Amino acid sequence: MNYFLDGLKNFADFSGRARRPEYWFFILFVYIITLVMYGIDFVALDAAESGYGILSSIFSLVILVPSISLAVRRLHDTGRSGWWYLVCLIPLGGLVLIYFLVQDSESDNQYGPSLK
What we know:
Elements: H1 2-9, H2 20-43, H3 47-50, H4 54-77, H5 93-102
Helix pairs in contact: 1-2, 2-4
């Protein structure tokens, strides 16, 4: 839970580095919260008729900037520029981005000292 809260506290910090556990636990909590929001939308707010849920849409918008900033910091930890995040805009680029995000941390690099 601390990783999720740390990701929210540094929501607009695109500099520095983020280790693998920080990134992946943040993503895990985002998916769990999103599933809960979808469940509430479909059960309580009858989102099945409209096709989208208001709670899950609001949560997705709120979590957008923190998740991008954390991914950029994770890319920095692997020794890549944050601009590599844009690779997900091309076909199959999401797979390349996931490959970059699961790699191990680099030792000291231009983005700061190693966090290990």
